[in-house]
Amino acid sequence: MRGYLKHLLQGAPPSLAQWAQLGYHLLPPAWRYGKAFRDAMSLLEASEQWDEKRLVEYQEKRLELIISQCYNHVPYYRQVFDEHGLTPRDIQGIGDLSKIPPLTKDTVRQRAKDLVATNVSFVELEAAHTSGSSGTPLHFYMDKTTRPVDRALALRKLLWLGYRKGDVMGFFKGLPLTNPNKFIRYFPGARELRISFHNSDEGRLSDMLDALNHYKPAFIDAWPSCLYILARWIEKTGRSVPPPRYILTASENLYPHIKDKIEKVFKAPVIDWYGQEESVAIALQCAYARGYHIQMEMGILELVPSGDGMAEIVGTCLHNMAMPFLRYKTGDLAIPGDNAPCPCGRKHPTLAKIVGREADFVLTPERNVISALILHYAFYDLPEVKEAQIVQEDLTNLTIKVVPWKRISEATRQAIIDGLRSRLESPKMNLVLQETEDIPRTKGGKRPFVISCLKLEDYL
């Protein structure tokens, strides 16, 4: 139903789309997403009791179906299999996936038509795209079951934290609402408060806080950068907010000092989760927040070593028969977990930490790779700075864009430059600070902290 309504309302007047969205949110999730959602919830309820061996058995059963689909009905994969002398019989389990070359974003862009299954009709396809936060958005298709399974996992993360039917949810994102003239919307049927940070001046921040005080969401689901801005503004003005039970973050790097600031101001624990629009690999933190439980029911997550104890996440979606992604290179980096038992008792293997994306790193002329996690601290505890972004156009030049609350003093400018230089440890790197009124968002509504135009593999 979701895909059909999105297609139906494309280009519709904002007022019509707004009313349609209101009616849509009156429906319970089981009706919004149909039988595929109900089946997924039944699967997730059962798999809560499974050990890792049983989870692997489920993955390999689904993998057999995906491999058969790819070989028989996806032109790109038939070519790949033939070129490597492979047939479905050669992929007997997860260990055999390494026989198949990884799929890159560039390949998806260049061979998009050949990646669509020939036995799936156009009406069964749901168009999707990535946010483009690290470059050009990637356009692809899902089948009618992929999104419902993803939505079931989104509900699982709430149930893990004690969500009850009727709890009010608050959503903070950088995307504009259906009606771009509004930035706050409440859906009484779904009990959802939606707030857009597409433009967030101090007047709007005040209205956002008024909405939080009025609706008092039990859970807040937010992009970290959005809630960090609001948290700093709350501190700056001395206002307060009713503490939610939990704050859930996703879609952006959760830097430690950002997590600390949000928890301190909102007086609630922050629980992070990892995923991507392509739905090839998902991992959730439970209430103990000691690691990310890999959601094996959604896909097969591989960790390909990339140095310094980190690994790239490579994923295989187990539910998208329309445009299957086998061994898809996400570009996301993680640190593997030690798989010590979690106090929650769940048997899913874990990731210790999500580090970021390859595009989140700055490369110095000395060929040192500096994480955005390190550079972000140069802006910590600078009350004059609202937002900032680092842009690397070439090996020797960094542009630092800074959005002030009101103005940037010379002392703050120097603190930023000194803080970055001490972390870059590169006398050859040229730093240029630009004060600006706004940092443009990507088409997906995000403002990446680091934008790098370099490909690390070209230099390292």
Automatic annotation (TrEMBL):
<keyword id="KW-0436">Ligase</keyword>
<dbReference type="GO" id="GO:0016874">
    <property type="term" value="F:ligase activity"/>
</dbReference>
<dbReference type="InterPro" id="IPR053158">
    <property type="entry name" value="CapK_Type1_Caps_Biosynth"/>
</dbReference>
<dbReference type="InterPro" id="IPR042099">
    <property type="entry name" value="ANL_N_sf"/>
</dbReference>
<protein>
    <submittedName>
        <fullName>Phenylacetate--CoA ligase family protein</fullName>
    </submittedName>
</protein>
